[in-house]
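Reviewers of the previous submission asked for a worked example of the structure-prediction workflow described in the proposal, so we include one complete record here. The input consisted solely of the amino acid sequence. No template or homolog information was supplied to the procedure at any stage.
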Amino acid sequence: MTWKRPSAQVRKLIRKGAQIIVNAPPEWLDELDAAVLGSNPAIAADPELARAVSRSNQANLFFWATANVRDPGAPVPPNSGPEPVDVARELVRRGLDAYSLDAYRVGEGVAWRRLMRIAFELTSDPAQLHELLDVCSRSISAFVDDTLSAIAAQIDLERDELTRGTHAQRRETVALVLDGAPIPRRRAEDRLGYALTGLHTAAVIWSDEPTGDLARLDRAAESVGHAAGGARPLSVLAGTATRWLWVPGNVTVDTDALLQSVHHAPDVRIAIGATAGGIDGFRRSHFDAITTQQLMARLRSPQQIAQFADVQLVALITTNTDRAAEFVEQTLGDLESAGVELQDTVRTFVAEGCNASRTAARLYTHRNTLLRRLARADELLPRPLAESCVNVAVALDIVRWRGTRG
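From that input alone, the workflow returned the following structure tokens.
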């Protein structure tokens, strides 16, 4: 493409517009994320991949804008920084291809609409506006094309590297089993080094900070095995900062002990599925763990560990986060913003069958103190607790897992 440099006045306008983008307010970036992730449910449902795509889109936005602050209207080279490379790596490790990069086109459209609004605020001169929009349109289009080509090339490199290792065989075999492909059980077991008969408890281990020493994820996987009675788990590298895990046998994961093992790495998160049997149980427990992971990501839960059995109802109710928020607000009223102590008192009271004596014993508090707290809760609730205890308990569970308690 022959690149014609813009006029001096338009160069000044481009620099001003680029400076505005470099200092973009958070709501602009939220708009970009919402559009990109909303266009691809497969990406949005995977917390690690969604974060990688979000970081890459924002990095591309700032890369283009910074280049135009430095040299307005000049061709912008492709972004070959760490963020696009991370996206390529994550796509390959999930068995996805370059078609998943269509989300970048959605980001391009959002950025272009934002830039047009900025342009109309910078000048009302028709000639300048025409030249400004023409230059920026060609610049953004060429930049995105070149960056996507670079990512596609990186995908090929990552795929070549991945398929040379034994991990590729395990990941491929697990994918076949999870998809219900007709792979013979014995062959799958030989390739995995793991028996698919008996009971399985799956877990997903991931990090919110996919940089630095990722061996902490492997240590967390070992901790899950120890917390489940010392069983040796099957561990599969599902992404740069994600491990899929299966623990064999009829086990109960000691979450208190597990939390003690991983508390020094607060960015490490663990979602645990329900125990189930056979190949179907291998799949079902994994998808339970994935559902739990998605809930933790969707609600931005501060909890480090969650079990499917504890969040199953919350996961169903919060599929639509806006409706869930309405339910909580209408059910709890002012109790939603009350202290943690009062909320936990009410939740425990309902869990104990609304028995004050058992609740007081479980909370190690005096019965009269408990009754005063419950009376205070009734003052805050839109309806008395006796008439709405089930809904109140569910709403408090949502508040607990989304981490917005007062």
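The chain has a mean pLDDT of 87. We consider this example representative of the routine output the project will generate in years two and three.
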